[in-house]
Design brief:
The protein is of the alpha+beta class. The protein is 55% helix and 17% strand. The chain contains three helices and three strands. A three-stranded mixed sheet has the order 1-2-3, with no helix packed on it.
Length: 86
C-alpha cells in the first residue's frame, strides 16, 4: 500500500529516510492536500530504472519489427562473423 505524507513531515529527514529504505515503493508527498512529489531510496530508484530501460528496449524492438527493420538470423550471423573474423 502506498505511503502518503504531507510536505511538512519532510522535516523528519531520518524517519523519512528509514521509510524509504524499509519500503520498495515510492513515498508520495502532498502539498495542500494534492500530490506534489515522490521520493524513494536509491536502490528502489535504480531497480525501477533498470526495469524501465528493459521495457523501453522491448518497445523499440517491437517498433523495428513492425517497420520491417529486421534481418534473418543466418544473414545477421554471417555478417557478424565476417565483420569480426569469427
Amino acid at each position: 500500500m502506498p505511503q502518503i505524507i504531507p510536505i511538512r513531515d519532510l522535516k523528519r529527514t531520518a524517519e523519512i529516510s528509514d521509510m524509504c529504505h524499509n519500503s520498495e515503493e515510492p513515498i508520495y508527498i502532498t502539498k495542500n492536500g494534492y500530490g506534489d512529489m515522490v521520493i524513494m531510496s536509491m536502490e528502489t530508484y535504480e531497480k525501477n530504472m533498470r526495469k524501465y530501460l528493459k521495457y523501453k528496449d522491448i518497445e523499440v524492438s517491437e517498433k523495428e519489427i513492425e517497420e520491417g527493420k529486421v534481418k534473418e538470423a543466418k544473414s545477421a550471423l554471417q555478417g557478424m562473423r565476417a565483420k569480426y573474423g569469427i
